[in-house]
Amino acid sequence: MTAHMSAADKAKYFAARQAATYVKSGMKVGLGTGSTAEWLVKCLGEMVRDEGLQIQGVPTSERTGALARQVGIKVITLDAAQRLDITIDGTDEYDPDLCLIKGGGGAHLREKIVAAASDRMVVIADESKTVDTLGAFPLPVEVIPFGMRTTEALIAAALVDLDVAARDITLRMAGDAPYVSDEGNHIFDLHLKRIGDARKLSQALNQIPGVVENGLFIDICKVIVVGHDNGRVTVT
Ligand code: 5RP
Fold it and tell me: What is the DSSP string of 179-190?
């Protein structure tokens, strides 16, 4: 299975394969988005096909939903599920307190809604995602299209108020046009280099009218499963 994979893909696959063992028949499962989460969906698909695993999946993006259906996972809406047993998702960064930056794949809004509706959020990653302090990865902030430049100015002002030193803001693009999320919104990426007080920043951003959700996940993730390309897996 892993013979022709890159080292990074092997690490992601081993993390996903380990986390898939937490999923049992009868569970309602939040399915994350991104290249690591895709391995998870494929592993669960194999378990459905080969081991008779019976689960209902709630995807965090249209593309994860398409993959889940393709590999034979029964897909339901979050409202049909109401409460989930577990969500397994990737991350862009995680710190020693298991706080995360997510949204590199543009799905952090649905990902946070689904994770918050879950008894347990398990993150799968390779070791490149670990940081001492969040912020090297640009922080995604999803905004509604209406008045988005006004929202951007309010975000910039909030960063000044919080004394954030590095505060470049870029509009995420998809080719020549602004990127559009599954919810029809746009994303500003905040290049902060270092986030001193993630909780305070998250609260300040989410208070701005026009901001839908930021990519900071604080006190949401309970377990991180880190894969290594030699097959070793560490669980924190
Ligand atoms: C998508 C996400 C992803 O989980 C995050 O970007 C990690 O992706 P990958 O597993 O491809 O590195 O938050 O919005």
Answer: ---TTS-EEEEE
List Cβ neighbours of 50 (8 Å cut-off, separation of 6 or more).
none
Q: Which two tokens stand for residue 134?
A: 């969040």
In the block, tokens 């394969």 appear at 17
State the Cα–Cα distance between residues 71 and 65, nearest whole angstrom: 10
Give the up-direction half-sphere exposure of residue 103: CA atoms within 13 A in the CB hemisphere.
31
CB 114 within 8 A of CB 60: yes
Q: Which atom of ligand 1 is nearest to the CA of 103?
A: 14
Whole-angstrom Cα distance, residue 31 to residue 59? 5
Residue type, 31: L
92 lines ligand 1 (CB under 6 A): yes
Q: How does pLDDT run across 136-160, given as a tens digit for each residue?
A: 999 999 999 999 999 999 999 999 9
Please indicate whether residue 108, judged by its CB atom, sits closer than 6 Å to ligand 1: yes
Contacts with 76 (C-beta within 8 Å, 6 or more apart), sequence order: 28, 56, 57, 58
Give nearest CA residue, ligand 1 atom 4: 90
What is the four-CA torsion angle of 42, 47, 50, 56, rounded to 10 degrees? -100
Instruction: Kindly list the catalytic residues.
Output: 111
Encoding tokens for residue 227? 């894969």
ipTM for the complex shown: 0.99
| Residues near 58 by beta carbon (within 8 Å), at least 6 away in sequence | 28, 29, 30, 31, 75, 76, 77, 78, 81, 84, 114
Q: What is the pLDDT of residues 42-51, one digit of tens each?
A: 999 999 999 9
Give the distance (Å) from ligand 1 centre to CA of residue 94.
12
